[in-house]
Design goal:
With 241 residues, the chain is an alpha+beta fold. It has one domain (5-240): Deoxyribonuclease I, Chain A, CATH 3.60.10.10. It is built from six helices and twelve strands. It has a six-stranded mixed sheet with strand order 3-4-2-1-12-11. Helix 1 (19-28) runs parallel beside helix 2. The two termini are 19 Å apart.
Length: 241
């Protein structure tokens, strides 16, 4: 059986998230992969000190993104309208105990209320279509899409993604007999009101899924513990080809 990977995704609120808090989060929860949105420079330095591989691209405003890794992995941008997605591939040769490559994508879709670029609805549509085109040209048996989708489960953008992949939060909540949790509130100290941060999976078994506070951010982060499903591992063996 393949080892489990702990994937954390979090919006760091224009880089305002507390760097020391991020270090504690990574250590306390043994995070293997950190997918960041709205990544600031101090955030990036703190995260890279714990997870030295991958690539972090901070920005002084809200365009910073990246994926930090505990072990080496291929990293690239996926060209999308206005804001690119980021992609990392975790290969068994670099990740001890991993039986099948994991294709992981970090997204930050344009917010529906944004005024620039205008209209935001058109930008969001172009981003989703661009991601779908990329996936069509670059299929992967084991894939996760995580990040700030700026869409609750009642929005068309969520339906589009959920129609093609499984919602990791919903899957874990059903397994554990509990409700899914919201991830966003208007202020860091606010009660979380909306679930707009998501993890969609294909070819992965979701063993645990938690919503965790990010000190200094208006978003809570999502931590997903997952491993390649047995059928995906079987497909990856030489004798199955």
């Amino acid at each position: 059986m393949s080892r489990a990977i702990r994937v954390f995704s979090g919006n760091l609120w224009w880089g305002k998230a507390d760097p020391d808090g991020l270090v504690s989060l990574i250590r306390d929860h043994a995070v293997d992969v950190f997918a960041a949105q709205e990544l600031g420079f101090e955030n990036a330095e703190a995260i890279a000190g714990e997870l030295p591989y991958g690539c972090l691209e901070p920005h002084p405003e809200y365009h910073g993104m990246g994926i930090a890794l505990r072990h080496p992995g291929k990293y690239e941008r996926i060209p999308l309208a206005f804001r690119d997605a980021r992609r990392a591939v975790l290969e068994p040769g670099d990740w001890p105990g991993l039986a099948h490559a994991i294709d992981l994508v970090n997204v930050h879709f344009q917010a529906p209320h944004s005024l620039r670029p205008f209209p935001s609805g058109w930008v969001r549509w172009q981003q989703v279509r661009g991601l779908e085109r990329y996936f069509g040209e670059n299929p992967a048996a084991v894939r996760a899409v995580v990040g700030d989708c700026n869409a609750t489960p009642s929005w068309p953008l969520y339906w589009r993604l959920a129609g093609q992949m499984r919602d990791g939060a919903v899957e874990a909540a059903r397994k554990e007999g509990r409700k899914v949790e919201a991830t966003w509130g208007p202020k860091p100290e606010s009660r979380r009101l909306l679930r707009i941060d998501h993890a969609f999976v294909r070819g992965l078994e979701v063993e645990r899924f938690r919503v965790l506070p990010i000190p200094g951010s208006d978003h809570s982060g999502i931590l997903m513990e997952c491993r390649p499903a047995p059928e995906a591992q079987a497909e990856g063996r030489p004798e199955a080809r």
